[in-house]
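Notebook entry, structure prediction.
Reason for the run: the old model in the group folder had no record of what sequence produced it. Starting over properly, with the input documented here first.
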Amino acid sequence: MTDMTKRPGRPRKKRHTLLIDADILISRTAIACERAVCWDEESELWTLHVDMKEAKSLVEDSIADYMNTLGGRELILCFSDRRTFRHDLYPAYKGNRKERKPTIFGPLREWAKDTWPWACWAGLEADDVMGILSKSHSISPPKIIVSDDKDMQSIPCNLYQPMHPERGVRRITYKDARQHHLMQTLTGDSGDNYPGCPGVGPKRAEAILKEGTWREVVEAYEAKGLNEQEALLQARLAQILTPSLYDRKTAKVTLWKPRKNK
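New structure, fully documented this time:
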């Protein structure tokens, strides 16, 4: 991966379209603005208090910072649909996420959609929307994905992680993206609740992927008594969509397939 930023935080010429992971932005902001208030210590009456104006201001400040730092000319906020195609492939997908939504997540989300251009497509996560738009000819380059989600490293793109500004904007090459996708297929993702290949962590996955081929992934699964179809399911859960894998008119997803002899 190539670092494209000469100095972190240095303003760029305003020419980029920023594809912003709005799920993360809205959720983090809504959580940060929650305050526990004790109304009566004797009766131990507590509530959560949120200042919507504070939350709106924080979102505006974050977006202004992205636009200034990254040279944003335009932006698109990318949101997830309520249910995605991955839930149909694997009903346990994200089934471990039982925590409540932040108090103002819904209203703050709707306000953001009323304020800036946004995209949310049937059956897709924000990751997929960013992946598709980053490779789509409908938006002129250059484009930068703004997200802290590690899954975005499986898409060839220019990536900026707000929680790690010191990394600058990284160019994820096709080789980098393919390697990361195969790594995720082997290790799974505990955050998204899919297991990958049993007993395979990041170090083991690196050792398996000597040449970075699908055959190496399949052999790792077979060594655990599993088959290629089970490896393929994990790969499809890990794969972030690109324009060739989604028809916006019909909302139909084309499931990922490995290249022959790769």
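Summary: Confidence is low (pLDDT under 50) at residues 2-8.
The old model has been moved to the deprecated folder.
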